[in-house]
Structure formats: structure tokens, C-alpha cells
Amino acid sequence: MCLITFAYQQHPEYSLIMVANRDEFYARPTLDMHFWENHPNVLAGKDLQQQGTWLGINKSGKLAAVTNFRDGKNIENNLKSRGALTRHFLTEAIPAKTYLQELATEGSLYGGFNLLLGDTTGLYYCSNKGALTKQITPGVYGLSNAYLDSHWPKVEAAKQGLARLIKSEFSIQSLAHLLHSEHQAADEDLPSTGISYEWEKQLSASFINTPSYGTRATTVLLQKNSGETQIAEFRFGPSGKVGEEHFALLMKPIG
């Protein structure tokens, strides 16, 4: 997952509105979003290489999403998969605050990450790259491959677009479209994350499409104050859209 924008307690009907893009190599084996056979309360995609997920929910009122923290100057090897962070939280009966306390000491065992966790007590953000763990207050936020609300062009564009859209009539399709721009940032606005100029440029778009790597899924989550939740996953390959799926469920409200 490489770009997430969400509005928390910013709409009279929907307590949480989230749109997220997962960027990955097309060759990496993946299962589409589904209810997991061994954990039927969990709705998430699955990375078949490491058996984790980038974004998912649990009917008991949990949400987890992870992005990698991009740092090409310090290559990390032999660390635990970031997808295990979300898998563990969604499949185990562990409160968000307890899990965050564990990660305060164990987070260094994982590749660089940004983690969003939600349960009935609230929504939280943490990273193992020096950011302070915090409970999310009402607002509109953006997250990519640096700290929460870093001033990257695509993060700012996503936040501003979401803030505008939720003030008017919106749909799952219009929310998904927010993160489908292939516009690349101007050279002077590119972040400096230690990778080549060519990659920095390509990855500056909200929607990435290269021959081998790109945006493979856009996920839209709408949760009403009552806990009624809609989730849609739009899937893509190197030649464009390859499918979509919609889910509707009742769960304990996040936060």
C-alpha cells in the first residue's frame, strides 16, 4: 500500500471514509480481497509471498493498513514482513493500544513501516522510523511512504481532493477516482528518498503504471456511524482495470 487518504469524523453520516492505493510488482502473487477461510471475520486481500495484507478489517471493529517507509539510502535486509503487522492485529484478540505498546519495543524487527490501526477505542498511527505514536483526532489525513501528512505532492492532492468531495454528493466510484491520476510531480517538488530520479518521478504519481510495477488495487471504505460498512476493491494490471468487487457488512464502528 503506497497512498492512503482518509476522513475521520468529518461527515455527518460517515464516521470513516478511506481511499487507498496498493502499489506492487505485478508478478507478486496476491489474493483479491476476501473473507479469510481460517479467520472468517477478517476481510482483506492477501500477499501470497509473505501471507500478510496491506489493508483489511475485522467485523469485531478493527482496521489495519500499512505502507512501507521508503529509504533508498539505508537498505534493510533480513527483517520481518510489514504485512505480518496487519495480519497479526486483524487475526488476534489484541486491543490497538496493547499492540502499539508491543510495537514500541518490537517495531525495529520489521522493515520500515507506517501503520494505521483502528478499533472501537479509536484510530491510531505509528511508525518504526522515529514518528511519535498518536491517536488520530478528527480530520482529513494522507499517508504514503513517509510520515503521516508529509508534504508530498500526491499526498497533498489526495487530501485536498477528499476534503472537497465529502462536502458534496459522492459515490464509491468518485472516491476511487481521487487516486487515479497519473500526473507526476514537477522535478522541484519531488521528495528525496534515496532512489533514482527516474523512480522518484514515476512514483510521484497517485496512480502508478510501469511495465512491471504499478497500482494493483484501489480500495474504498465507507463506514457509517452505525457501523454499516461498504468496501469496494478495484483491481488493475499493466494494461488497465481487470476487475472489481463490492462488500457490505455490519461491524462495530471504528473509534
By CATH, the topology is Penicillin V Acylase, Chain A
Instruction: Enumerate how many helices there are, as a single number.
Output: 5
Tell me the strand percentage band: 35-45%
**Main sheet record:** 7 strands, antiparallel
**Terminal Cα span:** 22 Å
Notes on the structure:
- It comes from Neptunomonas japonica JAMM 1380.
- This is NRDE family protein.
- InterPro entries: TANGO2.
- It holds the Pfam family TANGO2.
- This protein is α+β, with helices and mostly antiparallel strands and 255 residues long.
- The protein has one domain (3-250): 4-Layer Sandwich (Penicillin V Acylase, Chain A), CATH 3.60.60.
- It is 18% helix and 37% strand.
- The strands form 2 sheets. It has a 7-stranded antiparallel beta sheet, covered by helices on one side. It has a 6-stranded antiparallel beta sheet with strand order 10-1-2-11-12-13.
- The two termini are 22 Å apart.
- The mean pLDDT is 96.
